[in-house]
UniProtKB/TrEMBL annotation:
UniProt keyword list: Cell membrane, Membrane, Transmembrane, Transmembrane helix, Transport
Keyword Transport: yes
Recorded coiled-coil stretches: none
Full protein name: Glutathione transport system permease protein GsiC
Cellular component aspect of the GO annotation: plasma membrane
Length: 307
């Protein structure tokens, strides 16, 4: 287990470096800069002084090396725009994003997985048909459009929930953005679970268990569910990455003060340290979640070993 963890942690280093390098390159080739947006039509000498203050007068490779050196000490740099440490900016936004993502994931798993199981146990029936209609619809609806519809119905027309904002961080502010974010993965979980259960139900070990007189309830509980859970866990890991990316749209739509909103604002303002820090945190969170899921495989299925 320890060697597995060390190997996986070492494998994250090239990924992190590649992400940081890609962001550096993109910001270097895209027209415009933080200096031009801050100084407007100021004197060229003022722009030169700003570049020097921000360290933008050095070549890209020099700035990249300096950033990597800071990163090795846990320093994400300082925002060009606010002159605030990037770690402080991200820390303020982390909890709202975690609330949104984990609530959306809980919603999608708690609805999608049982829906997929029920549909698979009665293939071709009414529940199966309705479940697949819900799944296809959920995967087809654009989050931006769905969010606008939900705001119109539940906030403007019915007045049940606030239309946007974080407020006091209570549940009523979280419901609309979390459901909007969770509909698509819920549909995917339903389809994935249904397909996994149908495949496992026809496996040799399931037929053997039935031939030995094991009840259908025990077959589903001890053989089907356990094996399907491995596939579901894989989907959970992948969907966490998807939710982190999709949260950018949902956070801006609902004025949710998370890392996604920070990332969009930083990109528009050409605030490179804030962009790098936000993307890096998202990548590290995705890698950490998938590492945790890989470790859970062995707990769920003892046949899986960490080589």
């Amino acid at each position: 287990m320890l060697s597995f963890l060390i190997r996986r942690l070492l494998q994250t280093i090239p990924t992190v470096l590649a992400v940081v390098a890609l962001v550096f390159v993109l910001f270097s080739v895209v027209p415009g800069s933080i200096v031009s947006s801050m100084s407007d039509d100021a004197d060229p000498q003022v722009e030169l002084r700003l570049k020097k203050q921000l360290g933008l007068d050095d070549p890209v490779y020099v700035r990249f090396g300096a950033y990597i050196a800071k990163l090795a000490t846990g320093d994400f740099g300082t925002s060009f725009r606010t002159r605030e440490p990037v770690t402080t900016m991200i820390a303020k936004r982390a909890w709202p994003t975690l609330q949104l993502i984990f609530t959306a994931m809980a919603f999608s798993v708690l609805l999608g997985v049982p829906l997929g199981f029920i549909a698979a146990l009665r293939p071709g029936g009414l529940v199966d048909t309705l479940a697949m209609v819900v799944a296809v619809s959920g995967l087809s609806i654009a989050k931006f459009w769905l969010g606008l519809v939900m705001m119109y119905v539940f906030a403007l027309k019915l007045g049940w929930l606030p239309s946007f904002g974080y407020g006091d961080g209570g549940l009523k502010y979280l419901i609309l953005p979390a459901v909007t974010l969770g509909v698509s993965p819920m549909a995917l979980f339903a389809r994935t679970t249904r397909a996994a259960v149908l495949e496992i139900m026809t496996a040799d070990f399931v037929r053997t268990a039935r031939s030995k007189g094991m009840s259908e309830t025990r077959v589903v509980k001890w053989h089907v569910m356990r094996n399907a859970l491995v596939i579901i866990l894989t989907t959970v890991g992948l969907q966490f990455g998807g939710l982190m990316g999709q949260a950018v749209v949902v956070e801006k739509l609902f004025s949710w003060p998370g890392i996604g909103s920070l990332l969009v604002d930083s990109v528009l303002q050409r605030d490179l340290p804030a962009v790098q820090g936000s993307i890096l945190v998202v990548v590290l969170a995705f890698l950490a979640i998938n590492l945790l899921i890989d470790m859970l495989y062995g707990v769920i299925d003892p046949r899986i070993r960490y080589a």
